[in-house]
Amino acid sequence: MLISAASFAEPTSSQTNDQTNDAAETRAESRHEVAGTEAVTGIAIAQANSVTGEVVEWTTLGSTQSVSGDITARSVIEAQSVYGVASSNATAQGNALTAAASTNIDADVQQVAGSGTVSALSALRLGDYAGHVVSNSQATANAAEIATADSEANLALTQSSGSDVRAETRLEADNAEIETTVQTATAAGNSVTAGGTNSSTIMDIDQSNGGNISATAEADIANADYGATVASQAAGNTANLYNEWGYAHMQGEQMNSGDVEAMTRMGVGAFENGPLVGSANAVGNQVLLSNFGADAYAGVGQTNSGNVSANVVMQGGSGQSAFATSSAMGNAQSGYICSECPVGLDANTRQLNSGNVFSGVSQSYDGYVGAVTGSATAVGNASTFATVSPNGG
Question: Disordered: where is this region (predicted)?
Answer without folding.
Answer: 1-35
